[in-house]
Recover the amino acids of this structure.
């Protein structure tokens, strides 16, 4: 094989790789973390940090100050419905948690297939969610609400135009997350798995999943907003190969 053929072959291979990656690239104006093969630590609680303060300027996490969506049950007193950010996240004794307002959303990262793991503390009542593959209002959400009488159901929803698509929400079995627990959220081969402690709480296909943002949020219910504290968080990209 001559030099010219080798150059053309290498060039063609590079073009194929580039074309294959176009669909996975984050927008040019995206300012958050992009998941890579190596673990990226997004937050780790410091025992020396006391008091309440905003997220540091160099934090890998950031509050989404203008973010709206319509969940599967608008107007419901507990299940995710009309969500519009009016609150911010910050640090309280080293934990990431909502500081004010009622609805708050946290930009976590941009990812295709990924693992997100950490330790979170859940207490009290109220609702929260993870969004995955969120891009211009399309993506998937895993949401949960803890109620005093009706248990703690989980929902997987597909969104389009920042609204849950009718008929595309599935309610899963109850699981009450009520203490500090390690968790792992995995999206691979158009499938989401959420493990909390030693329990697999969510295992569900995401037929139309595409790369996008991962967003964490808490929302107001009839009980108020669920007090959740994030102790640690890290993410990495994974491959289906």
């Amino acid at each position: 094989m001559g030099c010219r053929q080798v150059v053309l072959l290498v060039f063609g291979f590079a073009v194929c790789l580039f074309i294959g990656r176009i669909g996975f690239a984050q927008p040019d104006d995206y300012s958050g973390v992009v998941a890579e093969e190596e673990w990226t630590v997004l937050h780790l609680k410091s025992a020396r940090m006391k008091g309440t303060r905003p997220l540091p300027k160099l934090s890998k996490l950031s509050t989404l100050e203008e973010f709206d969506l319509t969940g599967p049950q608008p107007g419901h007193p507990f299940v995710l419905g009309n969500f519009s950010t009016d609150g911010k996240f910050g640090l309280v004794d080293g934990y990431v948690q909502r500081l004010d307002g009622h609805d708050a959303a946290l930009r976590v990262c941009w990812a295709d297939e990924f693992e997100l793991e950490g330790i979170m503390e859940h207490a009290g009542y109220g609702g929260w969610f993870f969004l995955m593959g969120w891009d211009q209002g399309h993506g998937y959400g895993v949401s949960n609400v803890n109620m005093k009488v009706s248990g703690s159901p989980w929902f997987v929803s597909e969104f389009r135009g920042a609204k849950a698509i009718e008929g595309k929400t599935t309610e899963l079995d109850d699981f009450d997350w009520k203490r500090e627990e390690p968790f792992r959220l995995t999206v691979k081969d158009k499938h989401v798995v959420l493990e909390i402690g030693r329990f697999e709480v969510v295992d569900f296909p995401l037929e139309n999943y595409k790369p996008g943002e991962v967003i964490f949020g808490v929302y107001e219910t009839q009980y108020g907003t669920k007090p959740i504290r994030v102790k640690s968080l890290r993410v990495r990209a994974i491959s289906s190969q």
